[in-house]
Amino acid sequence: MSLPENIATLLQSEEINWQNLLEATISHFDCTTGTLHFLDPKTQLLHLKASKGIPGFLMPKVSTIPVGKGMAGIAAERKEAVEMCNLQTDASGVARPAAKETKVEGSLAAPLLLDGVLYGTIGVAKPVAYDFSESEIAALMEIGTEISKRLV
């Protein structure tokens, strides 16, 4: 699998514009919403680096996320992608109650991993119910790995 050309180009920049990178990733997956969090290894908190489509009133809830809480936190904890066909109807407890206020449905969160070390998470979401394919999940995981290489 290879990275989409525009994402690869952004990752090769001397100074990465994380907002542009997230927006290119959101667009690649035909999504409308997304977040990019970086992990503070001392506190084990995920800190928001870039976002798109998150309502302003939810920003305090998504700006800092504990590992293990919500989709991003669970993806970080498990060190694997977490996918949800419809966040609005989820009863598993993976999606936090406030997440439903985003009005997104199909959601995918992946860890930023390199050699088993966690650097953060990236997530994308659609406004409609959607099952992400195995190849889409693998592609977001690959993007996460490439982002991690720039954070080492």
Q: N- to C-terminal separation?
A: 22 Å
Instruction: Name the structural class.
Output: alpha+beta
Strand fraction: 25-35%
Order of helices and strands: HHEEHEHEEEH
User: pLDDT below 50 for ≥5 consecutive residues: which ranges?
Assistant: none
CATH class label: Alpha Beta
Proportion in helices? 25-40%
Q: Which strand order spans the largest sheet, edge to edge or round the barrel? A: 3-2-1-6-5-4
CATH architecture, by name, is: 2-Layer Sandwich
CATH topology: Beta-Lactamase
- Number of helical segments? 5
Tally of individual domains: 1
Average pLDDT, rounded to a whole number, is 88
The largest sheet, given as strand count, sense and whether it forms a barrel, is: 6 strands, antiparallel
CATH evolutionary superfamily: GAF domain
Q: Roughly how many Å is the radius of gyration?
A: 14 Å
Give the quaternary arrangement of the chains: single chain
User: What coarse outline follows from CA principal-axis ratios?
Assistant: globular
Count of extended strands:
6
Organism: Sediminicola luteus
Protein name: GAF domain-containing protein
